[in-house]
Design brief:
- With 211 residues, the protein is of the alpha/beta class.
- Helix content is 19%, strand content 30%.
- A hairpin with a 5-residue loop joins strand 13 (185-188) and strand 14 (194-195).
- The protein is globular and about 45 Å long.
Amino acid sequence: MIVYKIPTGLLSENVYFVVKDNKDTLIFDPGAQPEDLLAFIQEHDLNPVAIALTHAHYDHIGALDEVRNVYPVPVYMHHIEKDFLSNPVLNLSSRHEPLSVREADVLFKEMGEVSIEGFDCRIEHVPGHSPGSTVYLFEKDGFAIVGDTLFKGGCGRTDLPSSSSHAELMEGINKHLMTLPDNTVILSGHGDQTTIQQERATNPYLNGVTR
């Protein structure tokens, strides 16, 4: 599989396209700039089969409806945040431009191995930044899409209205991400990609230097 990244919006939120050899495509977190996302799909002759959300903050869902208006594919997400999609207070858009999008089609309640329209991966719940933050682990292919849980040299904020605690976030990162092979590529919701090995060696949050 090939993974493409397009940063979108004022917060440079990363939209990911996970593409099989036959062009079937799983889209992660269509956050903004729908015209650019749709143009990319067309230019690369992609065949979207599903959209998956790591969490439902506004910068990760802003282009969701525009994309699925053109490509009516199912949307997958953690059940805890199902109401975030239509509630500007919960998705944090009320302080900017209020955003409401249509409900998701598939709500994850159980974690573990899943198949999303033919894309096999393992999902794990890592709350802290948001209550339903979910990481998608493509272990056979050596990468993980982790939303705003872990960044290159950082981790997700836990001071937002729906956040829980830094301790809970770190517990989930250590349990579900730092146990991955060192060469696993980490694809975050913002910023550059990294690896488990690099974060274990240099991330100050993981080394207890800061919080």
